[in-house]
């Protein structure tokens, strides 16, 4: 049974959005009782507010509640009244549609779900800070910040000062993009990280060596480019063969093959557990966690050692670093190979910087006894050990939960399939997990065939869930004095999206942006009334703002009002401050929404986004998605004048 680190705690939630519902579900998974208070969200939190009104681990009474306000635009100085507006303005629609000819809205409330996980993390981190003797904190996060975090590696690459060789050139002639369809109608994804296995698979099916060779560069780089233009011959070869023949070729070559399941099929096959599994670790009593340094971030004074690569694991470590932890990476001799992938910023891959900035690195060879001793010594000095190795590798290195005897260590595995792989699993990477987990089905508009997004949806959300697992483990240690093992997976990210269901697109699925909207986003033709004109795709990087036409607010309203309400929370004023309740626009309604940004460099250079980015090695990287400040001075149980509904008794 999964441990409940917030057992006995009570949270109140105000408002109703996908982000707030996600945050409530995440805190509930930690054992917290969440009371939905109903009514509109409070001022300063247009997407909702959630916070602890009772926390048995606080150690003090009479303090104000810790909580998190959830907004739409956050530090972005533009009117973003809902999910669809955020997807458009922050590059998600562009990246999702990049492989298919133009911006497309995701058919799930992706930015909102990520913002909800981040909000729950803020509450958990603030609870941990208070358990370590720190003061009560309030926090703020927004869907825009969550979206920019998801797009961060792409934005860093677009703004890198050294372009390097760039993305692989498109193969000559006609193209196809995965997934593939067999002659008997099976839609499937394939996956391999091995060029030889790729060549053997296509040779077995009768494809020409030239087509296979031309397809490998765009296939292996699709995680960083969100495009995968393959020679049309490869799609035709699979289309001429039935599923049994293609499966046999995959098995002989060692290529993973994943049929696309519907969301209902995926839901029926998965056990009803939280998105992470947390269990106490019998490593003996541990010393108390270090006291919280005054005036510092919530995880200041804690140490994380990570052995991760690609996106999911490094993003989890980045989030913990953004929360104040010291993060040390274990890398092979010569450094992580991803450091050299172009484009570069300051001599290091811009994408790598986006996910690993602010971390230290120690190089050691885990294939040698000396290297493994170094890794064990590092883990013994840490409060969290995080890795995303395939199952069994940590144990082979002597770095599994049973091998690391450091009392109180929180051992976090950011895995892939979580015990529910397809029949012929390859590496558990983002796109096969989307296919197997029902996400590809959710993204499809009515009448369209399902296809995973080449925006790495489960990698990013999986990284957020892994960081949440680390926070849950630290909370459990603070309460019990023992360590913990937290297991998370990309499959859990797919399940969270599946449980949230269809969302933002106007048709309820993966809808293309209308032609007139695409014209507006490239500066050709009139923009719809009330829309914010997008930047030209041909503009030089940084030469045009995605908001060149201005930032009009909702009809009859003023954007500055909404911006001020969100800013008040960031300045430390409480989420339940006096003022009129924010009625807001329903998520996805698109009122006053910008047209999709199609130039990521221009997006990062736009003055409206100035407060959302830092420059790291010359590349633009999103700032931490949370703002923390001392909680308000009102004690727990005090009733703001404009919220008499809070007087309901807290459940015991």
The CATH class designation of the largest domain is Alpha Beta
N→C terminal distance: 23 Å
Mean pLDDT over the residues: 83
Number of helices: 22
* CATH fourth-tier homologous superfamily of the largest domain: Crotonobetainyl-coa:carnitine coa-transferase, domain 1
Overall description:
- Helix 12 packs across helix 18 (457-480) and helix 18 packs across helix 19.
- The model is unreliable at 505-509, 514-591 and 633-652 (pLDDT under 50).
- Helices cover 34% and strands 15% of the residues.
- It folds into 2 domains: 10-162 and 266-500, Crotonobetainyl-coa:carnitine coa-transferase, domain 1 (Rossmann fold), CATH 3.40.50; 180-259.
- The longest helix is centred in the C-terminal third of the chain and has 24 residues, at 457-480.
- It has a 7-stranded mixed beta sheet with strand order 11-19-18-17-12-13-16, with helices on both faces.
- The protein has 652 residues and is α/β, with parallel strands linked by helices.
- InterPro entries: CoA-transferase_III (IPR050509), CoA-Trfase_fam_III (IPR003673), CoA-Trfase_III_dom3_sf (IPR044855), CoA-Trfase_III_dom_1_sf (IPR023606).
């Amino acid at each position: 049974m999964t441990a409940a680190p917030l057992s006995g705690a009570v949270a109140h939630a105000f408002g109703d959005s996908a982000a707030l519902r996600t945050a409530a579900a995440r805190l509930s998974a930690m054992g917290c009782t969440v009371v939905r208070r109903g009514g509109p969200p409070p001022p300063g939190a247009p997407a909702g507010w959630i916070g602890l009104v009772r926390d048995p681990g606080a150690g003090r009474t009479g303090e104000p509640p810790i909580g998190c306000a959830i907004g739409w635009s956050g530090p972005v100085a533009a009117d973003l009244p809902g999910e669809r507006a955020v997807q458009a303005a922050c590059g998600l629609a562009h990246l999702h549609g990049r492989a298919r000819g133009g911006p497309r809205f995701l058919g799930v409330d992706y930015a909102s779900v990520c913002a909800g996980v981040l909000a729950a993390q803020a509450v958990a981190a603030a609870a941990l800070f208070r358990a370590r003797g720190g003061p009560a904190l309030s926090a703020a996060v927004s869907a825009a910040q969550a979206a920019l975090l998801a797009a961060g590696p792409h934005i860093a690459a677009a703004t890198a000062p050294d372009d390097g060789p760039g993305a692989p050139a498109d193969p000559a002639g006609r193209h196809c993009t995965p997934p593939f369809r067999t002659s008997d109608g099976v839609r499937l994804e394939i996956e391999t990280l091995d060029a030889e296995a790729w060549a053997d698979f296509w040779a077995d099916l009768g494809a020409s060596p030239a087509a296979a060779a031309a397809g490998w560069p765009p296939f292996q780089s699709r995680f960083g480019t969100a495009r995968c233009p393959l020679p049309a011959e490869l799609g035709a070869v699979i289309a001429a063969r039935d599923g049994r023949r293609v499966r046999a070729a995959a098995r002989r070559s060692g290529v993973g093959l994943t049929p696309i399941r519907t969301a209902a099929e995926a839901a029926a096959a998965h056990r009803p557990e939280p998105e992470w599994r947390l269990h106490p670790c019998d490593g003996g009593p541990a010393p108390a966690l270090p006291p919280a340094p005054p005036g510092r971030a919530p995880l200041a004074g804690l140490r994380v050692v990570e052995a991760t690569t690609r996106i999911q694991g490094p993003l989890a470590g980045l989030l913990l670093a953004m929360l104040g932890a010291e993060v040390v990476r274990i890398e092979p001799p010569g450094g992580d190979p991803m450091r050299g992938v172009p484009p570069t910023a300051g001599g290091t891959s811009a994408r790598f910087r986006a996910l690993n900035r602010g971390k230290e690195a120690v190089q050691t060879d885990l294939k040698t006894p000396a290297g493994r001793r170094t890794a064990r010594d590092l883990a013994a000095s840490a409060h969290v050990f995080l890795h995303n190795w395939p199952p069994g590798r940590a144990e082979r290195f002597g770095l599994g939960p049973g091998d690391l005897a450091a009392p109180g260590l929180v051992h976090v595995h950011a895995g892939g399939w979580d015990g529910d792989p397809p029949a012929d699993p390859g590496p558990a990477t983002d796109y096969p997990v989307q296919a197997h987990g029902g996400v590809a089905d959710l993204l499809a508009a009515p009448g369209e065939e399902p296809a995973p997004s080449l925006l790495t949806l489960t990698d990013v959300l999986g990284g957020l869930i892994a960081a949440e697992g680390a926070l849950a483990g630290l909370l459990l240690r603070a309460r019990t004095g023992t360590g913990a093992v937290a297991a998370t997976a990309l499959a859990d990210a797919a399940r969270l999206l599946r449980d949230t269901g269809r969302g933002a697109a106007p048709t309820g699925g993966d809808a293309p942006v209308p032609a007139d909207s695409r014209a507006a986003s490239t500066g050709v033709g009139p923009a719809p009334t009330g829309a914010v004109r997008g930047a030209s795709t041909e503009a030089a990087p940084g030469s045009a703002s995605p908001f060149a036409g201005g930032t009009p607010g909702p009809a009859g309203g003023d954007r500055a009002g909404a911006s001020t309400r969100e800013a008040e929370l960031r300045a430390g004023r409480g989420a339940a401050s006096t003022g009129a309740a924010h009625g807001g626009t329903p998520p996805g309604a698109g009122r006053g929404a910008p047209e999709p940004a199609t130039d990521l460099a221009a997006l990062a250079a736009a003055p409206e986004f100035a407060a959302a980015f830092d420059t790291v090695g010359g590349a633009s990287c999103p700032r931490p998605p949370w703002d923390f400040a001392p909680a308000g001075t009102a004690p727990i149980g005090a009733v703001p004048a404009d919220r008499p509904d809070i007087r309901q008794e807290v459940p015991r």
